[in-house]
Design a protein that fits this description.
Elements: E1 5-9, H1 13-24, E2 28-32, H2 36-55, H3 61-69, E3 71-74, E4 85-88, H4 94-107, E5 113-116, H5 123-127, E6 136-141, E7 150-155, H6 161-173, E8 177-182, H7 189-205, H8 211-222, H9 228-235, H10 237-251, H11 260-268
Parallel strand pairs: 1-2, 1-4, 2-3, 4-5, 5-6, 7-8
Antiparallel strand pairs: 6-7
Helix pairs in contact: 1-2, 7-9, 7-10, 10-11
The structure holds nicotinamide-adenine-dinucleotide (NAD).
């Protein structure tokens, strides 16, 4: 099936990154957000990101103009009517997402695939908000979208093979690589990554080694590009804590208990880079 237009709902961090990579691959993009300001901020973020590529000599001014020109920003869900795939990348809140998905479902063709970029909500449950659960799938992009190669495709209970194949074709067309995971808390990547980071915090708490030594150990000994504690600071310690709480509650397994030190740092307002202090200090 020919795909020409991609809808993106949410013009924030992830939504504008997804819009950028789709437009750069030649797709027309319709990007929806709740206010004109949010839409404009999303398009401005794409423009800044493309300016960086121009400075590195990876893009010409004409190419940048063409990419931005392919993104139509709007506050109207009706503008999604021509989309072949719509990717929901709005705020991580189940009630909001259920409302948005119903709205998308009502405004697009019955053949359109609806995808969600959620990092923690059940794909099967979100699919049930639409009248097309077989044409529904998780497309979990990684941040920053233009730089990260992976898209984790997450099948809900009712996702069809045809939907998976169509979305795999799309992922290839935007120059990314897909892996396919089943619907389960954290999917595949965060299920492995977050407990690893949590264990690094336990190691620090137990005084096995300093934060610098733990991170250097994992970089030089395991070839990780960034140490787990520095990565936790980047992700945000509040986000890390809520992910571990979701795992702990859903699997009901003590191996997912959040490290007490993680909880205490969040209580103190040490959230990582965004608050200026986490396992490291940022000025
Ligand atoms: P964000 O807060 O930067 O952006 C969310 C956007 O959604 C905002 O612009 C907001 O105005 C918009 N929005 C809210 N309600 C809306 C509505 N009814 N209609 C249209 N737009 C609406 O959030 P983000 O970091 O871009 O995250 C988006 C999604 O991607 C979440 O589900 C998140 O879990 C997931 N995700 C985030 C990351 C990350 O590192 N930030 C990584 C992977 C997945």
């Amino acid at each position: 099936m020919n795909m020409e237009t991609i809808g993106v709902v949410g013009a924030g961090t992830m939504g504008n990154g997804i819009a950028q990579v789709c437009a750069a691959a030649g797709f027309g993009v319709v990007m929806v957000d709740i206010s004109t300001e949010a839409v404009q901020q999303g398009i401005a973020a794409v423009s800044i990101s493309l300016d960086r590529l121009m400075k590195k000599g990876k893009l010409t001014g004409n190419e940048k103009g063409a990419i931005v020109g392919r993104i139509k920003g709007t506050t109207s869900y009706a503008d999604l009517s021509s989309a072949d795939i719509v990717i929901e990348a709005a705020t991580e809140n189940e009630a909001i997402k259920l409302r948005i998905l119903k709205e998308i479902d009502a405004n697009v063709d019955p053949s359109t695939v609806i995808a969600t970029n959620t990092s923690s909500i059940s794909i099967t449950r979100l699919a049930a908000a639409t009248r097309r659960p077989e044409k529904f799938i998780g497309t979990h992009f990684f941040n920053p979208v233009p730089l990260m190669e992976l898209v984790e495709l997450v099948r809900g209970l009712q996702t069809s093979d045809e939907t998976q194949t169509r979305v795999e074709t799309f992922v290839k067309a935007i120059g990314k690589t897909a892996i396919v995971a089943r619907n389960s808390p954290g999917f595949a990547v965060n299920r492995i990554l977050c407990p690893m980071i949590n264990e690094a915090i336990f190691a620090l708490q137990e005084g096995l080694a300093s934060a610098e030594e733990i991170d250097t150990g994992m970089k030089l000994g395991c070839n990780q590009p960034i140490g787990p504690l520095a990565l936790a600071d980047l992700i945000g310690l509040d986000t890390m804590l809520s992910v571990m709480e979701v795992f702990y509650t859903n699997f009901n397994d003590s191996k997912y208990r959040p490290a007490p030190m993680l909880r205490e740092m969040v209580d103190a307002g040490y959230l990582g880079r965004k608050s200026g202090r986490g396992f490291y200090s940022y000025s």
